[in-house]
Amino acid sequence: MLGGIEIPFEKGLLGHSDGDALIHAIIDAVLGAAGEGNIGEHFPDTDPAYKNASSMDLLKKTVLHLSERGFSIETVDSTVILEKPKLAPYLPAMKEALSSVIGAPVNIKPKTNEGMGFTGRGEGIAVMAVCLLKNKKNS
After folding, report:
1. Which residues of 20-35 are buried (b: 16+ CB within 10 A; e: fewer)?
2. pTM attached to this predicted model
3. Which of 28, 59, 127, 131 could hold 76 in an S-S bridge, CB 3.0 to 4.6 Å?
4. Separation of alpha carbons 98 and 3, rounded Å
């Protein structure tokens, strides 16, 4: 799973939940922008309730949590660093899936690491995300 979409590939991502690294990075970006900690504080991997959880469900809970605190997400920008598989064919579906939950545009930029480091060797993935929030209480 990546960006809420199942991507066929001989390797997968490991995690306590479904391991969707893109959604996890987006949750961290959104929570961080609101000063609300990180994914591990809200959905700890020590809690069996989150074992094999859908990251998309965790994102939905995060969006609701922030909305209850007066925040709305204006946009999300992310960078996914991996050698394979190529993500271009999946980007429209990923953006649609994420935008429909977030309620705002989501940009996803896939990059390779040109064969260097653990991502370049295909041993893992790296994802970075930032978001712009609006505090509805101060509008």
Report:
1. bbbbbbbbbbbbbbbe
2. 0.91
3. 131
4. 7
Please tell me the total number of residues recorded for the chain in this structure. 139
User: In whole angstroms, what separates CA 80 from the centre of its chain?
Assistant: 10
Nearest Cα to 56, choosing from 100, 89, 15? 100
CA dihedral 50, 130, 114, 121 (to 10 degrees): -20
Residue 116's CB: how many other CB atoms inside 10 A? 10
Q: Convert the pLDDT of each residue in 65-112 to its tens digit.
A: 999 999 999 999 999 999 888 899 999 999 999 999 999 999 999 999
- Domains of the chain (ranges; CATH) run 21-134 (3.30.1330.50)
Helix or strand or coil: residue 23?
A: helix
Question: CA 28 to CA 62: how far, in whole Å?
Answer: 10
**Cα angle value 81/30/126 (rounded, 5°):** 15
